[in-house]
Write a structure and sequence with these properties.
With 593 residues, this protein is of the alpha+beta class. The chain is 28% helix and 19% strand. The chain starts with a strand and ends with a strand.
Length: 593
């Protein structure tokens, strides 16, 4: 499933945040059989990214960052991908995904013969079943309030849609799986099997002490659906597999055990230099999807935008995706006469300040006071205005200005109370108290540093004591939701299709709901949203949810991100993409000139 991803900073790869997930793209189509896809030209490219890689499982709440997702995208394959027009493109070379019934909604997945992991093991329905088990929460019986039961898989996305299914029907051939829903599901086409099947069931089965994938399937088939009203002791083997899924693929270096980084996609990871770089080589066996033209891709992690520009200028990088700023764009455009192309545009992502519902911010008056100190206008002026003269403070948690429903939502959601800093209003709410607030952010991201500095300076005027909780580029993402801070500055980016990104972040109890926002009425609206297939009705529901979030003093959206990519004329086939995948969306078309 395509998730709202944690973005690099201003901008994206997980695009516009949760909101844009309301703007679904068109679906349909099959993998194009272009000359670019078929050619095997060879050569190499070096790509520079802001964040540093730290896991081979990008679907966990801890691992859900843009860079992890991009590496997974290049090394895994599935039933679909999303193109730069936000269309869902089916990959019929991998297998067939077909809706066989509307009532009840029934979807059959069939993996083609010959699709395999890089250790030679076939990709089977067991791998898809593992993904269903992790994404659906089917076996969970935890009751957070009673503190009983078990939550097995720490899935970054929202399980609401797949929770509408019973145990899937597995085909006798071992390559097909059929899922039946009890209600319509708006995002059925992107629910499973793509854009890649990341984690191999045969590896998890072995790590849990099972003999093979048949034993794995039998274990899941023999377990009932979890019931939080009647929790049972955790199943030891499923717990072992879930723990492995949750954290066993986390690493900043290349594991000694090759089963921890298996590929079933166009590239295979060759080496990893902690917090510095990664190299991937072409999977020579891969022919079940668009085939890469390059033989090797090196990814370097450089947070400093000026250093990215210099690397491109010196020929040490071919493609860069720096933190967008006026200075950075100016420096890149100065290279255009030297064989460099620069693409710039609004992204499906936004930066925001989230407040925890605990510690000093458990008091709504304190949250509102802190929100009143945030100099959103100054933040926009310093970080975004020079890039986009029309940029303004973002006044919705769920829409960006590019969307038709944004204006109505912003007008009615309560954002007008926080247009700019109101120090006197904040002091009145604090009534002489001086709360200590620790703010966590990516200290290697210049835009986040600027936002933190402006917020600290303003909040101090109202009496807040601000503590710098900044963390490094490969550490801040895993710290989300773990405590140790009161507020955090980061970005959400969205795939641009589907609506599940909304409950992913804002529904009570979800693993990507990092600040523990909870509103029963909002939960009901989100449950209605995921089963609403009429897009015009989706917008109305999302507007209601947006208001609920603002009413709770959740925090503040800051600005819609502006994205900038630049690439050398040494590499062809690079195309801009506004969502979480960025220029990687068609990496198979990249070629060395």
């Amino acid at each position: 499933m395509r998730l709202g991803r944690i973005s690099k900073a201003v901008g994206v790869a997980a695009a516009a945040a949760i909101a844009l997930s309301a703007c679904a793209g068109n679906s349909g189509g099959t993998t194009p059989t272009t000359a670019a896809a078929a050619s095997k030209q060879g050569g190499s490219a070096t790509v520079v990214e802001v964040n540093a890689f730290n896991t081979f499982n990008p679907n966990t709440a801890d691992g859900n960052t843009d860079i992890n997702s991009k590496i997974s995208y290049a090394t895994h394959s599935g039933f679909y991908y999303i193109d730069n027009k936000l269309n869902v493109v089916h990959n019929d070379k991998f297998g067939k995904m077909e809706k066989t019934s509307d009532n009840p909604l029934t979807v059959k997945y069939t993996i083609n013969d010959g699709v395999k992991w890089s250790d030679g093991t076939p990709v089977t329905a067991a791998d898809l079943l593992l993904q269903w088990a992790a994404f659906s929460g089917y076996y969970d019986d935890a009751d957070p309030e009673a503190k009983t039961g078990t939550s097995y898989f720490s899935y970054a996305g929202d399980p609401t849609g797949l929770a509408l299914t019973d145990f899937p029907e597995l085909g006798a051939d071992g390559r097909s799986m059929t899922v039946k829903y009890s209600k319509p599901f708006a995002d059925w086409e992107i629910a499973l099997g793509g854009p890649g099947i990341d984690i191999p069931a045969h590896v998890l089965a072995k790590k849990a002490g099972l003999t093979d994938t048949k034993a794995f399937v039998d274990l899941l088939k023999g377990m009932p659906r979890g019931d939080s009203k009647a929790p049972k002791p955790a199943n030891t083997q499923l717990r072992a597999m879930a723990d492995m899924w949750n954290t066993g693929f986390d690493t900043k270096t290349l594991p000694a055990d090759p089963t921890l980084f298996l590929s079933n996609g166009p590239f295979i990871v060759k080496n990893v230099n902690q917090d510095q770089s990664m190299t991937m080589v072409r999977n020579k066996d891969y022919n079940w999807g668009p085939e890469a033209k390059l033989d090797e891709i090196t990814v370097r992690y450089i947070g400093d935008s000026a250093a990215q520009v210099q690397a491109l200028k010196n020929g040490e990088a071919d493609i860069v995706a720096p933190q967008a700023s006026a200075d950075t764009v100016e420096q890149l455009k100065a290279l255009q006469g030297q064989g460099v192309t620069v693409d710039q545009g609004n992204q499906l992502s936004y930066d925001h300040l989230d407040l925890n519902y605990s510690g000093p911010l458990a008091d709504k008056n304190v949250r509102e006071a802190f929100m009143k100190t945030v100099p959103r206008k100054d933040i926009v002026d310093k970080i975004v205005k020079k890039l986009d003269p029309n940029a303004k403070e973002l006044d919705s948690q769920l829409f960006v200005p590019d969307q038709a429903a944004y204006a109505d939502s912003a007008k009615n959601n309560g954002s007008s109370a926080y247009q700019d800093a109101d120090i006197d209003g904040a002091k009145k709410l604090l009534n002489g108290t001086t709360p200590e607030i620790r703010i966590m952010y990516n200290k290697d991201n210049p835009n986040r540093v600027d936002a933190y500095s402006l917020i600290r300076e303003s909040a101090t005027k109202a009496g807040f004591q601000i503590v710098d909780g900044g963390l490094g580029k490969s550490d801040w993402g895993k710290a989300l939701g773990k405590g140790g801070y009161d507020a955090t500055i980061f970005g959400w980016t969205n795939p641009g299709v589907g609506v599940s990104g909304v409950p992913q972040i804002f529904k009570s109890g979800n693993d990507s709901n990092f600040n523990q926002f909870s509103d029963p009425d909002a939960d009901k609206l989100m449950e209605e949203l995921v089963v609403t297939t009429d897009r015009s009705k989706q917008d109305g529901l999302i507007q209601q949810i947006d208001k609920k979030i603002w009413d709770s003093a959740y925090g503040l959206p800051l600005f819609q991100s502006v994205g900038v990519d630049a690439y050398s004329d040494r590499i062809t086939g690079v195309k801009y993409m506004p969502n979480q995948t960025g220029v990687w969306w068609n990496f198979w078309e990249w070629a060395q000139k």
